[in-house]
Design a protein that fits this description.
By secondary structure, the protein is of the alpha+beta class. The chain is built from 15 helices and eight strands. The chain has two domains: 149 residues, Jelly Rolls (Sandwich); 209 residues, no CATH class. It is 63% helix and 11% strand. This is Cyclic nucleotide-binding domain-containing protein.
């Protein structure tokens, strides 16, 4: 792009560096200015040089580079957009002052290069000199303020990342500790299940894991809402949870219907509640077990969602697959904690667990997943009933 001196003057007149200059003074600066059209990768100012030119970016883009003294590699500090200026620091330094950074175009650009060495030689003590230095000082102060803000934001980001790493480390240590104790005690747990029954053993394991997760969450320093422990928008959460659970309930009933078709020897109906009502009441054992299961649903969800899934979602390195990886790992770990009961049962907990993990990631609320879990538990134990199928198949 070709441009006359008057065109350069118009660009300079609108720039903050030239504020308060008279037409005569602006003409002196324009006479020392040059319009340049440069390609990407062109060095406009080189670190270590001692020239006194200032660059005003008219179009395109450039970047400020700082060289690593040990490796010699250049690192990008900031990107310059049209209207930005660079090189003013050399005007405030002494004659031997060297450039502190390199300015390089990162795309085809148009720039105005002003040679202030010529201006200083002929106008070293006049009013224009004072005006230019005042304008330069004001602009440098604004740039310093902007740089400080970027630095503070960068420090905060690094602190947040460090805090997340510490929290992830604490989470990992606690999970490994619990799993190690569980694995080492597996044989003893199996013997205790035979002697006392699986219910009391499961309750003890849940209590230990829930306590450990709660302590970990409190010590993390993050708000409880980050782990889904919030009642915000609870009506919306419960309503959505109910609607999202309906397909799961229908799938359970449909699955039992298919099993009964394939195994006609099983004396049962799709909805066992119909037979129980017709027979005069519920099975007391299943009633007690079902109620206990519903009461412990929130605790199970607290362990798998708030304790494990939340930690993985928030503290794993950012990626598009982080949420799904958190859902998968949290359910695998929770299923493994049921291995002392029955391997088949442990594997079966994965499928609804994936659904509740997705629901939790969608709502970021433990309330929704817990409510859905309770609905499914009541549906399985009271309405559909799986006891006869379970004993017949497993």
């Amino acid at each position: 792009m070709d441009i006359q001196a008057s065109g350069i003057g118009e660009v300079l007149r609108a720039h903050s560096l030239m504020a308060h200059l008279t037409e005569e003074e602006l003409a002196r600066v324009t006479a020392s200015a040059q319009w340049l059209n440069v390609e990407a990768g062109e060095v406009l100012i080189r670190e270590g040089d001692t020239d006194r030119t200032v660059i005003i970016l008219v179009g395109g883009g450039a970047e400020v580079l700082k060289r690593n003294a040990e490796t010699g590699e250049n690192y990008t500090i900031v990107r310059l957009e049209p209207g930005a200026s660079a090189g003013e620091m050399a005007l405030l330094a002494d004659a031997e002052g060297a450039r502190s950074a390199t300015i390089r175009t990162c795309e085809p650009s148009a720039v105005i290069r002003i040679d202030f060495e010529l201006i200083w030689q002929h106008n070293a003590n006049d009013a224009m000199h004072v005006k230019l230095l005042s304008n330069i000082s004001r602009d440098l102060s604004a740039k310093l303020n902007a740089t400080n803000q970027v630095t503070v934001a960068s420090i905060r980001k690094e602190l947040a990342a460090s805090k997340a790493q510490i929290a992830m480390g604490m989470f990992t240590v606690n999970i490994l500790f619990l799993l190690a104790i569980y694995t080492l005690s597996f044989r003893t747990l199996m013997d205790l299940v035979i002697q006392w029954g699986s219910n009391w053993i499961s309750i003890g394991i849940l209590a230990i894991m829930a306590t450990a997760m709660y302590v970990l969450i409190r010590r993390s320093g993050y708000p409880l809402a980050m782990f889904g422990l919030t009642l915000a928008n609870w009506r919306k959460v419960l309503g959505e949870s109910f609607l999202l659970t309906i397909p799961l309930l229908a799938g359970i009933a449909g699955l039992k219907w298919v099993v009964l078709l394939l195994h006609p020897e099983i004396d049962d109906t799709v909805f066992s509640i119909v037979r129980q009502v017709a027979g005069g009441g519920f099975d007391q054992t299943m009633l007690i077990y079902g109620l206990a299961y519903a009461l412990f649903c929130p605790i199970q969800e607290f362990i798998s969602r708030s304790g494990i899934q939340s930690a993985l979602q928030n503290f794993l390195p950012p990626s598009n697959k982080r949420v799904w990886l958190a859902i998968l790992l949290s359910n695998l770990l929770f299923a493994m904690a049921h291995a002392h009961l029955n391997l088949t049962f442990a594997l079966l907990t994965l499928f609804p667990g994936f659904y509740w993990g997705w629901m939790y990631a969608r709502q970021n609320s433990l309330l929704g997943a817990s409510f859905s879990h309770i609905l499914v538990g009541v549906w399985i134990f009271f309405v559909v009933g799986i006891d006869k199928i379970w004993w017949a198949l497993f």
